[in-house]
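Researcher: Quick sanity check before group meeting.
Model: Go ahead. Protein one:
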Amino acid sequence: MADKAVTIRTRKFMTNRLLSRKQFVIDVLHPGRANVSKNGLDTKVEKSRKQMKERKNRSKKIRGVKKTKAGDAAKGGKKK
């Protein structure tokens, strides 16, 4: 089947200088699709931030992804 569109929006972007990382909240819109995997989200966020080459060796985590009641969106946090 064709890959359905997934829209990722970031908000509350923050640079944590004490821990040398960037943190932000992501909103994922995926209408007509059941869910998006964390690995898929991680890849899409890195491509959208254009930091894949620079941050390849650093640990990245997507945490606390929760679906909305309607099931067509999800919210979570990202730490780099």
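Researcher: Fine. The other one?
Model: Protein two, sequence then structure:
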Amino acid sequence: MKVDILFAIMAVQEVLFFAPIAKRLRDEEGLKVAFLTFHEAGDDILEKEGVPYFSLHKIKNSEGKKKHIFLKPEVVDSTLRDVQERLGINIRKLILHEMLTTNRLDEKYLSSKVMTYHAIMDSIFRDNDIGCVVQELGGFIAPQLLYHVSRYYRKQHVFIEPAMFPKRIVFTLDDMNADIAGYGEGVTASDEELKKLLEQYSAGKTVVIPKKDKHFFQDMSLKRLFSMDNFRRLSRKLYHKYILGREEEYNAILWYIVYHFIKFFKRKVLSFYYSEPVEGEKYIYYPFHVPLDVQLTMRCPEFLNQEALVGYIARVIPLGCRLYVKEHPAAIGGHQLSRMRDILRDKNIRLIHPRHNSFDLIKNAGCVITINSKVGFEAIMQGKPVVVLGRTFYRGKGVTVDVNNVSEISGAVTAATGGAGNPANRDYFLNKAFEWSYKGELYENSPENIENFFRSLRTFMLKSGIIKSDKYTAEGAVK
């Protein structure tokens, strides 16, 4: 079967969002579209919509792929080595995100899953003419492996993720790391919409919370724990898994329940350690990343132990400076309690109460140290010096002090706090970052957003040469 665009989905909300977009690409652009599903409940929706799909779980169960469990260990090891060599990957790194987020620590089980999924994906690409794969950026085995199989077969691949600006997205072609294409080429004109967004940021003191993630950005209280949204999500998962017997990837239900109660408990314990910012105190600000976010597990796994990193930073920053740290709003109570208590023995470190906005902490800091977080981008927006440790799209753009090794942090902080940045570089960077993004928001199903997202995806694919159309004009672009 010929498939110009293969959408990959992990959840029902993704099917509901991408199905109308896929149908418009089919009807208006004449493209052959299909889905690769990792969620059986989504298959029913595609059936009703009349959109073709490959259901990984149905294929797995119908073809008896689970038989790999009974293979001899030496056969499994040999097959996994072949997969690693063929795709040029490290399977331990590939399974890291799923292992930690689901608390499934059995490498044998997860490695066997890689072997099964690879066999199914390989057969799909071998037996069908796939043009391009489109999916949201994700750290689970399924999306990562699909990316590597796509690249092995020299098929184009697009990752989608939220941009740093509200209601905007970025597309990344044939790479796991997002970066601004054509940076440094030509001049940019200041955009009125960008000016408005910068003014809104200064007034509202927040940069962007995607609608799909808003329920995570709350303090870990009883209200959040027992919210109607959580009950709806839990009820739906229990119904799909135990009543309908449907398979999906996000199926570690018991662990997610336990983990939320653990976070609630840790939040209560940490309340005894929270500090308030001290007026007039000199400090460096390190914003904690979500502990198991894909930005760490997939893009910068070397910095997974943030607590150890914070302890080191506190020992090498200039004398007379404190280190302020704050939990990510979406991960309050998410850090390992023993590690947090260890680093907070250092009186040079203040764990700031979650009620405080990063806007003000950035504003009053000597500099911001970050791996690859949104707070680093916010600091650039405010014109504050930023020390960057990891891979991120704002690294190497002349607006940050970049570190290649943790041993360089001390010198980088001195350099960052010792000189003023170049406003022209900042303005150029922000304009380029805005030009790089497109209108649209993931999983916001209003007609206006669906229209914007469709036009943005189509424009990106036309500009990238993924699809070709004589109908394309500059007026069709949604920027």
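Researcher: One line on it for the slide.
Model: The first helix runs from residue 12 to 29.
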